[in-house]
Sequence to fold (301 residues):
Amino acid sequence: MSTQAPTFTQPLQSVVALEGSAATFEAQVSGSPVPEVSWFRDGQVLSAAALPGAQISFSNGRAVLMIPAVTAAHSGRFSVRATNGAGQATSTAELLVTVETAPPNFIQRLQSLTVRQRSQVRLDVRVTGIPTPVVKFYREGAEIQSSADFQIVQEGDLYSLLIAEAFPEDSGTYSVNASNSSGRATSTAELLVQGEEAVPAKKTKTVISSSSQRSSSQSRQTRVETRSMEAHFESSSMQMHVEGGGVSHLAHKTPPRVPPKPTSTSKSPTPSSLAARVAGGRHQSPSPVRHVKAPTPAPVR
Fold:
């Protein structure tokens, strides 16, 4: 079993008490094995004879000395010593007994905070008063008990609430109540714990290399040349159609072949030969791509 020397996780705090009131010293100590605790006043071991009515206890690492009704003779330095086989530790504080009284007064009030989720939070106040005020922390009206998640610590007139890891559900109204026999005082603030925000997606950029640009330029040039060739072919085709139409029109205007009038000395053509001539003339129509003159009628014999 490992050993650990005593350590005061919460040391003693000085106390200002009104004469006739109770005064309490508290300390939290850890160690392995569990240490033994002893109390001292001005360097002398406290005993029932030296401090009649005093109550001393030690449980779960919490050492307490309570004097039910203090007098001016009780003023002085009080110490607690924790000892085990691995070593020892001591914590000391002052007791001041006075006949004057003063209500609690916040010389440093709570401050509102806005923090991110999982952040550590510390809420501080400084308060004075005679006798020493009893200070309690609240959230939404419910008293906060010191624990692993919410720790309440005191250093002189500084009182702090420590939140080890804050979450959105810890948001709310926090208050501190300080009271003694002369009065009461309260300080209030807001705590806002913001949840984690979604991280926006990064914008992507398209980078075009110089080779891709050259390829794109060549493609555009090829498309332009292709379109130019197509336009040239269309223009040539139109020209050919116009010329063809003209040839057909001239051929259509070519006067039909008229057979010569028969004379007394010539023989009259037979119907069959006349039909053959007409058919032959139709087969000999001019080409659509050449200008051909009509044939000259044969001389009459």
Observations:
- The helical segments are 210-253, 271-283.
- The mean pLDDT is 76.
- The radius of gyration is 59 Å.
- DSSP finds two helices and 18 strands in the chain.
